[in-house]
């Protein structure tokens, strides 16, 4: 059996891989079921019921307004001055009929074209988390239990062994991510068909969703590779988990507080989540309200900074090269003991 197939088999048979994968799928299934149960399809009967409810609410507002105006007129006859009443009671008029729309009384419905893109971010985040945990533990456990040293006895090519393990990890995660993304598309299309609407879907809309889903898969693979590289550098799974905690708590929250105290502009541009959102949503527009450009109407127009998915790609690529390159260098240079 080749080293690649042996590593792929080891990845699939690990209990942590199975449990983390199942947990991730359960989370995604819970989201899909929640969206299904919280929405319903709007048919003629639902519209008719909403119209009746809107008419009832409008009539109630008319009666309340007429009663309020009558109280105002009675107070004016008695010569009383009440602060809640205007000086001219004729100004108290009921709202027009179109002010109370039937749309306000319709149940929530799932619009596939408008809402599906947001769910792809949740899918990508879950796959990335699964990939990071599985990737970091896959190589971290080998170092911790001594399996890496045993493997190198019959395959002494260190970097080859490390990259083969990475290839097996990415292959398994790619299969999981692609199949899960296809099921995600199908599930929410079914939700849109049965509990909402799928109208307005064009070739361009499908292409946009497909590219967003592809970026989500790429993000999961990159995050898994970063977890793999960190765990290999530290020769322990805790190195990857500790690195993430350090970056999140110290590098992100601490940096954000420091930048705000120093009055820096576009603080979010220094934070990693901003680039992850830009990667998934194609771009993120940041506003700096401390710098105003007043328009002809005297309104403040803040300075803006646009971060695109290309900026995010550069950051992810740099992190991938740095961490995986460091892991390969350390594997080649350090003693195996």
TrEMBL record:
One of its GO terms (molecular function) is ABC-type transporter activity. The chain crosses the membrane at residues 20-37, 120-141, 162-185, 205-231, 238-261, 312-331. Keywords: Membrane, Transmembrane, Transmembrane helix. GO terms for cellular component: plasma membrane. This is ABC transporter transmembrane protein. It comes from Salinispora tropica (strain ATCC BAA-916 / DSM 44818 / JCM 13857 / NBRC 105044 / CNB-440).
């Amino acid at each position: 059996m080749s080293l690649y197939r042996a590593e792929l088999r080891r990845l699939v048979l690990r209990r942590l891989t199975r449990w983390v994968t199942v947990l991730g799928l359960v989370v995604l299934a819970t989201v899909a079921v929640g969206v299904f149960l919280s929405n319903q399809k709007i048919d003629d009967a639902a519209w008719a019921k909403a119209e009746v409810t809107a008419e009832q609410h409008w009539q109630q507002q008319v009666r309340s307004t007429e009663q309020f105006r009558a109280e105002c007129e009675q107070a004016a006859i008695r010569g009383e001055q009440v602060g809640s009443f205007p000086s001219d009671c004729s100004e108290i008029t009921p709202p027009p009929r179109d002010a109370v729309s039937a749309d306000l009384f319709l149940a929530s419905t799932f619009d596939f074209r408008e809402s599906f893109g947001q769910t792809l971010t949740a899918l990508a985040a879950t796959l990335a988390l699964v990939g990071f945990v599985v990737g970091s533990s896959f190589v971290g456990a080998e170092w911790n239990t001594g399996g890496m040293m045993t493997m190198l006895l019959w395959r002494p090519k260190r970097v080859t062994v490390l990259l083969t393990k990475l290839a097996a990890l990415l292959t398994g995660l790619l299969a999981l991510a692609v199949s899960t993304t296809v099921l995600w598309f199908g599930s929410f299309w079914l939700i849109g068909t049965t509990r909402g609407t799928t109208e307005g879907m064009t070739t361009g809309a499908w292409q946009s969703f497909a590219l967003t889903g592809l970026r989500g898969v790429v993000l999961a693979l990159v995050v898994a590779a970063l977890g793999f590289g960190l765990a290999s550098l530290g020769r322990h799974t805790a190195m990857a988990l500790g690195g993430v905690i350090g970056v999140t708590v110290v590098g992100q929250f601490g940096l954000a507080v420091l930048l705000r105290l120093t009055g820096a502009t576009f603080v979010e541009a220094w934070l990693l989540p901003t680039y992850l959102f830009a990667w998934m949503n194609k771009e993120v527009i940041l506003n700096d309200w401390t710098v105003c450009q007043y328009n002809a109407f005297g309104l403040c127009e803040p300075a803006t900074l646009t971060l695109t998915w290309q900026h995010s790609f550069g950051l992810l690529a740099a992190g991938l090269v740095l961490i995986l390159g460091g892991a390969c260098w350390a594997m080649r240079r350090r003693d195996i003991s």
